[in-house]
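Read as chain and fold; for instance:
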Amino acid sequence: MDRLGMAREDDGKEDSYTENLIGTLLAIFGNLLVSISVSIQKQSHVSLAGNKDPRQYYHTKTWWFGLMLMVLGEGAMFVSYAFAPLSLIAPLNAVSVISSSILGFLFLREKWKAKEFLKRYILTFLGCAMTAGGTYLFVTFGPNSHEKLNAENIVKHVISWPILLYLLLGIIAFCLILYFYKQWNANYLVLILLLVALLGSVTVITVKAVSGMIVLSVRGPLQLSYPIFYVMFVCMVATVFFQASFLAQASHLYDSSLITCVNYIFSTTLAIVAGTIFYQEFNHEDVLHICMFALGCAVCFLGVFLITKNKRRAKAFEPYVTMDMAKGIPTIHDKGWAVQPDYNGSFSYGALENNDNVSPVTLPVGQDQSVSPGPVSQYQSTELKKD
């Protein structure tokens, strides 16, 4: 009997390892597809603007191809939650940061000398290496236990006192932060992204529950007839909607690279905490594995910070000068939307809109959309004609 029990335990561990591997590969594959799709769609925008094509972006094949890849990538990430622990899937979003940096570099068509290139991008390469190393650590030492998410197990988790306490504290924290954000006009990035991360912790819990019940329904007993499935589904859609709303508000106020870094750290940390409390993913792990997992996440956080550090550079005011002259005088515009790809000295390949979301510097008082210089000398007008 002891041998039979040990054999069953070994079989269970092997099944767990196999499912973890499937979930990890799906998450990596999904993140890669999403980053590639974003690159293709942005390149479609840039091509239309560069060629002065009057068509809308959704009339191009490349944009639709990018959208198809994005749907496949999001689908792969959604299914990955059904196979692997939540604490293992959440930090793998770092893969999209690495791939976006590499793809952005491939889209750059600038020629650099070796010393200049190294000086400019050494931190980004170091960040990619650290993020890859951290990913290896937390995947290797991450939790291996993974239960089947049927409706009964999910209901037991929802009504357990640790979850109720966690949800109560989360709701209180969310309401307090939201009060300061709305009533006191505290538009601090940390507050906005804390709201996003608190909502995200609920999102990943519900995504894992919905995904697990759908996969289990495909494999065997139907789970979609239980009310808990629809409760989780509604919570998932609602939290995703409000996350997108707060992220849109943050993108109008702060640099996109800074948002990427801080949001990854906050959202990953709270997602791991949520997975630990709700699904009890670290109950059967020893101290060494937990410490190495935490070290891998910390290395990933530092790597993402270094990758995005190069992108957060202040931009001086550079007026956009129209090529069509009005009475021999160039018209200067203060525009926040770039027509050509805006590389900004970073690994982003540019798009119709400013990738880094840096708000344009306003012209001094008294200057509108055009600036009329003083008397133009004969030499200056000759040079203008030559141009």
